[in-house]
Each structure stands twice: as structure tokens, then as C-alpha cells.
Design a protein that fits this description.
Blueprint lengths: L7 E9 L15 E9 L2 E7 L9 E2 L5 E3 L1 E6 L17 H15 L2 H18 L1 E9 L4 H16 L4 E7 L8 H13 L4 E5 L5 H15 L3 E5 L9 H11 L6 E5 L8 H13 L2 E5 L1 H7 L17 H6 L4 E3 L16 H12 L14 H6 L16 E3 L5 H4 L8 E4 L2 E2 L17
Helix pairs in contact: 2-3, 4-5, 5-6, 6-7
The structure holds zinc ion.
Length: about 425
């Protein structure tokens, strides 16, 4: 019903207040308003309350929800889809680390990484994602293999998916100053983001200082994996915030996971959140991966907690919060397809993004776009790109009850084909 190209107007499109800055309309208690959207030359020419100026030949969406194209700010497309050849033997975090490391050392040639990355990007694109940040395992010698692949992939996908890369290494690797300097140079040359996994090692503060100093020297943003554990003694989120404050860091910092925060005493939580807010840190929760790995028990008993961090408390304090896909079909998460609607559906259920919905929809669009410095992404506004998704659902319960596999993805004002790649494409890589 939407033309494949050319100018058109959608009438009675249901838009959400949190993702349409400046729109004057009568929003209901769910945050929705009926609107008319004029699209011309790949841009949104006009959005206004429905029926204000009836347009001949407008396409009547009859109240279907329209969301801006998704922004996925935390993924691992260098690891994606290795599950068939290297599964996680017991679903534990340690099982994931060991399986992933073994698979990387055995199989991650440039061709292997490139084909799996491209597969992942085709999935994300088909589901309606327009920007994606991936972490890139950067232990030697993988850094020399994966970063050139990433640079090539970013070029090939330009205009379809804005791809960002953040290096990933265990923080103790930063003890080797020469190695760190080399990696930082590589990341800076690639226009990447400096990332690491923090652990409660005795010299954590010193190592963080080293990472912050490198980021300041090269003008890099930061992206950490922190406290992906139920161990209450894991307080590296607080250490990162303190390091940001005492280093006077002015770039963007995104911290993922922060699971242990949800287990800590209230006073400790308050102190950490104060520092995180003052340091201007954004937090991304990975609800599906957390649900899978956290509280995984080997004694036949049932998990008792969800694994996610304190997003409500963070948002209440003005800390920018996101949710994202994280791993897909690898030892850290056996499932997933980089579908941000699935992430939002799961987040709604696991994290209670409902009753009221408020501005939680920003977590999959506007907020990650700001974290990733993407102007004009994650919102729908006149003058902005006509990058959006038309769903069947007309309210939250309709939208979040079905997979919406028949959604319509519009990019640059054109309806695009939504071809999910066939798993069989990767079969020859999985023989091992
Ligand atoms: Zn991750």
C-alpha cells in the first residue's frame, strides 16, 4: 500500500510522544497521537496532528504504530552465529568465555568474521535497524584480523546501517602499555570507540586511568562492559564513574550490563548512581543476555532473579538509559536476531517498561542515537530522514504480543525488501 518510491502521505499514523520531539498533538495516556506524515525526497516533509489538512490520495494507516528506525548500541557481530560449531556447554558465563575464546583462536579468519558480520547486518537491516555499534574482540592477534574487516564492512554498509566499532579486551591487558598504545592507535585510526571489560583486579583504578588517558589523548569515546555478575563485590561501574570524574573526561561514556548493582545495598547504590549521573555516563542494559547468563545454576535449581540493572532508578536521576541486543547465537546467548522490537518486547516484560510506558521507547532509538552521536537518528521530525517502521499493532498490547514479522520498513522514503538471510548460508563455516 505504500509506494516503492516517490512522494506520499500517510494518514492516521500513530506516533509516540517520546520519539517525535516538538510535535504538537493530543497525546493519549499511552503517549500516542494520531498524525499525518508527508514524505518527499527521502525526508519527512511534514508531521502534524491527523486530519488537520486532509490530503488527497493519502494512505490511511488506520492507527497503525510508526516508530523511527532502530538504533542498536551494544552488539557483538564478530561473535554472532558461531553457536552451531561452538555451543556453550552449560549456559554459564565461564562456559561462554571459554567457548568463545576457543572458537576465536580456531576459526576467526578474515573471511569467517566478514561472512558472519554481513549475515548479522542483513538481519538487523531487515528488522528496521539503521545504526549499530559492535564490540570487536581485540586480543592479539585478532585485532589485526577483525579491525580491517570492520572497516571494510562499515564502508559496504554505509547508507544502510551506520556501523560503529568498539574494541573489547579484559582490563588486565592494559597492564601491557606498549600493546595498549598500539591498539588505541588502531582504534583511533579506524574512527572507533575505546572499550574494555572491567574486572575487580587490584590495580583496576590505575588501569582505568590508563584507558581514560588514552581516550583523552586521542579524542575517543569510551564503552565498557562492567559487572556482568551477581557478585556484590563487583563495583567497577562506580570505579569507572570515579575515574571519569577525576580525569575530567568530556567524551561520551557508555557502560553495559552493571548487573551486580541490582544486588547491592541501597546506600551503595545511591552513591554509585550519584557518581554515574555526575560523570555523564549512559548505561545500556542487555536484558535477553542477562536473563540467559545470570543466575544460571548447575545444580538443577531454578533461577531467581532477572539479571538486569536498575534502569528505573537510573532514568529517574536523569542518567541516559538504553537497551540493546548484545550477543546473537553465540556462547553468550544461544538465540537472538538483532531485532530491536524483540529487545523492546523482552525489556518491557523483564524490566517493566509499562504501566506507564512513559518515555521508555527512547531506549531503542533516541537515547542510543545520542550516545552514538548520530544527529537526526532515533526520532521522527519534519526535515529529518524518512527512516521508519510501520507496524500492524495499534497500541502497546497489539505491538508487543506478536513478532510483527510483516512490519514495513521505510528507509530514505522507500519501502525496502525485508529478506532475512537463510541460516544454511553459514553451514560451510560451521563444519569446523
Ligand atoms: Zn556485550
Amino acid at each position: 500500500m505504500i509506494p516503492a518510491s516517490g512522494a506520499f502521505t500517510l494518514s492516521n499514523a500513530r506516533l509516540h510522544q517520546s520519539l517525535t520531539p516538538g510535535l504538537q498533538a493530543a497525546f493519549d495516556s499511552d503517549g500516542f497521537a494520531l498524525t499525518d506524515i508527508a514524505v518527499d525526497g527521502g525526508k519527512v516533509a511534514l508531521i502534524e496532528a491527523a486530519g488537520r489538512k486532509p490530503v488527497q490520495d493519502a494512505i490511511d494507516l488506520a492507527g497503525r504504530i510508526v516508530l523511527p528506525a532502530f538504533v542498536d548500541c551494544h552488539t557483538h557481530i564478530d561473535k554472532g552465529h558461531i553457536w552451531p560449531r561452538t555451543p556453550n556447554p552449560d549456559g554459564s558465563f565461564t562456559g561462554a568465555l571459554n567457548a568463545n575464546g576457543a572458537d576465536r583462536r580456531a576459526y576467526w579468519s578474515a573471511e569467517d568474521v566478514a561472512r558472519r558480520m554481513d549475515f548479522s547486518l542483513r538481519c538487523a537491516y531487515a528488522h528496521g535497524t539503521k545504526a549499530l555499534r559492535t564490540h570487536i574482540d581485540s586480543e592479539r592477534p585478532q585485532d589485526e584480523i577483525s579491525w580491517p574487516v570492520f572497516i571494510d564492512m562499515r564502508e559496504r554498509w554505509r547508507g544502510r546501517i551506520e556501523l560503529q566499532g568498539a574494541c573489547l579486551f579484559g582490563i588486565e591487558a592494559a597492564r601491557d602499555k606498549k600493546w595498549l598504545a598500539g591498539l588505541v592507535k588502531r582504534v583511533a585510526a579506524a574512527g572507533g570507540v575505546l572499550g574494555a571489560v572491567t574486572y575487580m583486579v587490584p590495580d583496576l583504578e590505575e588501569l582505568l586511568d590508563r584507558v581514560f588517558a588514552a581516550a583523552i589523548e586521542h579524542g575517543l569515546d569510551l564503552d565498557f562492559h562492567a559487572d556482568e555478575t551477581d557478585d556484590v563485590s563487583a563495583i567497577s561501574l562506580k570505579k569507572i564513574a570515579e575515574a571519569a570524574l577525576w580525569n575530567g573526561f568530556e567524551g561520551k561514556i557508555l557502560v553495559g550490563h552493571c548487573c551486580s548493582l541490582a544486588r547491592q545495598p541501597d546506600l551503595d547504590v545511591l552513591d554509585t548512581l550519584d557518581k554515574v549521573a555526575r560523570a555523564g555516563i549512559s548505561v545500556v542494559s542487555l536484558p535477553m543476555c542477562n536473563l540467559y547468563l545470570q543466575d544460571r545454576r548447575q545444580d538443577g535449581t531454578t533461577p531467581r532473579w532477572r539479571g538486569v540493572t536498575l534502569l528505573h532508578e537510573m532514568k529517574a536521576r536523569g542518567i541516559p538509559v538504553c537497551v540493546a541486543s548484545d550477543n546473537t547465537r553465540d556462547p553468550f546467548y544461544a538465540y537472538g536476531d538483532l531485532d530491536m522490537l524483540e529487545v523492546y518486547r523482552m525489556a518491557t516484560r523483564i524490566l517493566h517498561f509499562d504501566h506507564p510506558v512513559g518515555d521508555w521507547p527512547k531506549t531503542i532509538a533516541a537515547t542510543p542515537a545520542a550516545v552514538m552521536r548520530l544527529d537526526g537518528a532515533g526520532v521522527l521530525a519534519a526535515g529529518g530522514p524518512a527512516d521508519f517502521i510501520v507496524f500492524k499493532g495499534r497500541n502497546w498490547t497489539e505491538l508487543l504480543s506478536r513478532p510483527e514479522s510483516d512490519r514495513i520498513v521505510v528507509r530514505d522514503g522507500k519501502v525496502m525488501p525485508r529478506d532475512l538471510p537463510d541460516y544454511a548460508e553459514l553451514d560451510d563455516l560451521m563444519v569446523g
